[in-house]
Write the structure tokens for this entry.
Amino acid sequence: MRHRRRSRRLVGKWEHRQALLRNLLNSLFTHEKITTTLPKAKELRRVADRIITLAKRGDLHARRQALAVLQNKTIVRKIFQEAQERFGDRQGGYTRIVKLGPRRGDAAMMAIVELVAEKLEYRRSKKKIQADKEALAMAPTTTKTKSAEEGKKEELEDTIEETQKAPSEPGSEESGAETEAKSEAETSEDTDSGQEETAVETSEDQQKIESSSSTEVKDQQD
């Protein structure tokens, strides 16, 4: 009796069982699809998923554990190179079993074991789809309300800017008056300086004339 025994017997001895599973694993990882009996396929799936989990881990200890089971370095190298890229988005279920029906002769149930090649896609629930539809239906009203709120905010900002500009206008006039006064003062200074220069020039000319006349008088006396 098989009380509390989780695995299937398959063959008589334990060594024969290990060799059988090793050969099935090597064939599966080489060809990625094999045909066998249904009990063997179910046992093979358990071991194959463990090997792929080790390959996803990818460290040295995991590689040695996989090599102890498969005993083929080329297959182990192939699995460890492809596992993360191929099965990285899955947390299990790396193999698929497809039943074929009874075999002619002994009527044993046959099945196909293959590695899953498709990328994992999650189906969305009906509740989420309905919620998205309701959100899309409510979207135009929300945009209208948002546009109205934005218009009000812009009006408030314009009024604030106008109120800020209003008291600043007299100051600007005062500053204009100050600039005009400064310009007038500069022009008056320029005129004063010009008059002084002309007065100096006339005094110099007079001195020259007097000196020339004095020299002429001396010459006449001589």
Summary: The domain at 14-115 is CATH 3.90.1030.10 (50s Ribosomal Protein L17; Chain: A,). The radius of gyration is 52 Å.
